[in-house]
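P.,

For your records, the input lines for the assembly:
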Amino acid sequence: MNRAILPYLGLFGAALLLPLFANDYWAVIGARAAVYWVLVGGLNLVVGFGGQLAIGYVALLTLGAYTSAVLCARYGLDPFLSFAAAGVVGAVAGVIVGLPALRLRTFYFAMTTLGFATIVTQIALAWQSVTGGGIGLPGPELPKPFDTPWGFYLFALALAALITWLSANVASSRFGRALVAIRDAEVAAEATGISKPRLLTTVFLFSGAAAGVAGGLFATLQSYITPDAFSFDLSVTFFIAILVGGRGSILGPLIGNIILTLLPEFAAPLVAWSTFLYAALLLAIVLLMPGGIAALLDFSNRKPLTANRAIVPRLDRLRGLLDHGTAQASIVLRNVVLSFGGVRAIDGLDLTVRPGQVHGLIGPNGSGKTTTLNVISGYYEPEQGEAFLGTTPLPHGAPQTRAALGIARTFQTPRLIGEASVLENVMIGATIEGTASFVETMLSLPRHRGDEKRMTAQAMDALAVVGLDGLAPVRADRLQHSELRFMEIARALMLKPAFLLLDEPAAGLSGDEIKRLGELIVAIARNGTGVLLVEHHADLIFDICDHVTVLNLGRELAAGTPGDIRAHKEVVSAYLGA
Amino acid sequence: MLAAILAAGLAVGATYALIGVTYNLMFSASRVMSFTAGQLGMLGGVFGALFIHRLGMPIIPGFILALAACALVGVVTEIVAVRPVLGSLEQHLYVLSTLGLALMIQQFTAIEWSTEPQPFPVLLGFDGGGPLDEKFWLPLVACVVTIAGLEFLYRRTLVGRAFLAIAEDNFAARALGLPERNLRMGSYALAGVVGGLAGFASGELLLAFFANGAMLNFFGFVPVALGGLGNNRGAIIGGIALGVFQQAANFLVGGVFASVAVFAVFIIVLLVRPQGLFGAPATRRV
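Structure tokens returned:
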């Protein structure tokens, strides 16, 4: 059995035993913790995994609570159906609250959710004919056997367990990894084909539905709701529970939620100060322990790694990984012009990268090498000229389209997810190859499990190819710089790319490592992938390239075989030195 | 009626504008938006009421002490919530650290001061209640004084030029040998003074109330977001326009719809132009 679920079994087992030795008062406290977790468990995917600072989720709790209370009290709807309705309203509102996140930066988004929370409370207060205004209205009453404190407690606990299972399934899937990728390495996420709008919209639907259902449960728990019950302090508690628990974890926020709900019960004199203490806790966590509870519980990543590790690529495993045969089309740039302000970074460049070849791109600093790479991978939009794959134009300014076309890349500074394992980092590369839908993933249906199995095996292959398979379970931020460079190549190989763009892969590597990198690049090209290599190490370029283009001031200074370039007078004087 | 709307609108708007300037002062020194901006405004009112009304100090020393206390809070913000997270700006930890500090300030005030709005002393004696009541024009005076003071600082003094330099290009300014850390602390102290002035000048209108912090945080941010980060002119014009619009809507269609309308405009403008109406588009990321 998977050891990771033991803590969950322990927590929920203990919660099941609670009715045996505690009084009714604790049933209410326990139910409150469970109801809050239904919301926090969903919100965790948005905040903890996706890194979106939604601080106003009390708005969705309010909407869910009023939806279900109004439907029950005014229209006599069945309470369970009213919870479902609250979930639907919550899901829709979740997308509305979340949409600004697609365009706005963090602080802005936090502010919009805060504004939304204020508005919803004001409307609840003003719309008296429906919500009862300041007088409020009764919450849904559940039928037997859920009408006692312990009956409701067990019902809420079951939903809390359900949300834990659902969110854990999402978290450990390609969706969860993609969320973390958007949080920590958005640029790399785009290069692997992750569509931020689609992913976030799905997750906002999920967490909104959870928050709406939690609102319905909350109305029942309170038995009578007024706008006062939905203070902004509550919102802050939800948000802080996640950060105290630790980003990118389910168990941490679960424990954080329990602690924050129970804390005032154990320290009655502190009740008035509870929000102050939570805020102080938030500040302390951010400044002193950004990993939260989850980092404290992460024992496996405290064992020291072996020193003097060598990266030994296994080129024989490459054939199994890159089984696509040689592509036919080339990447072609025609007369591309691009300036930044007054500086012409690329000034009328023509370039053809052929499949199965290693194409070197060299030149002094500022000659437009990386900019060329960024035009091909869609980050920049050229002012003139076109980029083609074969005869199809590559859409500009749309980097997330490149992965599906088989164009993968690495970055000048490795773009990694420090808190995820090396294996997970590499699996990000295959995000677009997943076949299971979000719902299948959430319910852990066979197609999702098949996806995971295949991606894990493929990622282990890719790691073996670059020589990092021994480090697969290690947290990526513990790796050495050179290992990160190879890890990025493994991530790019997950796409089985027709073209691989490498941006200074040898920077910071030792002599031995550069030699192995060279062999790896040649082997990748011989398997049919076209490689565009931006490098400063002239020896590496001349050793492994089939074709070299020299740039200067955004223009082609020379092009040809390594032999031609070495003999080229202008190149030697401008760049290589005599 | 029109005069009443205009008087109240301009007064509230001038307060929003000053909170917007507070945001900008902190942002230009550190590239950080801080949730404490609105709290500084709230504290200006609370400190004023505390020193003058409750402790019975004369107006001038009470005023100076209130601003000094707010300046201190500004400096504390820089030391506690901003400086430690500047190293990893791209992780946006400042949103969390300043939120934590702002909530601490707000809760501390609620518990130690009062959870109810407390009266603010009449400062000059023009308190007839009509459109010419001092509570309506004091915020405007504060706004004009601040604009003039900042213009003088930025254009005529060496320190002000140094502020501009670090706002323009932090690295280059440090390479020139400017004491970046001290200038940043200076900016935060100045932000504290401007925020405190906003709260003090609007004290008779908004009263000394802990919940003003959250309210000013949001409505002070709206003009900054719409005008573009760091753009003081945008913040002032936007703030005053927002105040007048809000008061007009308040009188004509009621408070809730006014809030909804402001929020809707805010969201729509930002979705269409995330960099604000007068801001420059985002720079390159790769």
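Two observations worth noting. Residues 162 and 401 of chain A are 35 Å apart (CA to CA). Chain A touches chain B through 45 residues (CB under 8 Å).

Regards
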